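quick one before i forget lol
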Amino acid sequence: MFADPQAIKQDGTTNVSFPRTGVGNGVGTWTSPDGLMVASVRQTSTKARFRREMRIVVTKVSADALNPAINTPKSASVYLVVDQPIVGFTADELKNAYKAIDSWSAGQIDHLLLGES
């Protein structure tokens, strides 16, 4: 089980303590003190595959695009999914794939967020 609380760099630089706010069958959630960021993990499986997910959901209130006098809530998600067969890969092999995408995305995230391919 993941620790409670979780230390997450909410602004990218400073660790913030996110207390656990939910637990269920294969699911855990942690919420930032201001309630604007939620971290979650989810584990699911089928007969042939495991799916493991870590997700951050960020919420903010901003002006409506069609009526700037009205503020509306908006949310965005960033997540990592590991979709694997039940047999055939070790944790170390999948960790190496994670390290590869982590190092690749660090230099390419601006291109991704600008919609490039």
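fyi The chain has a mean pLDDT of 95.
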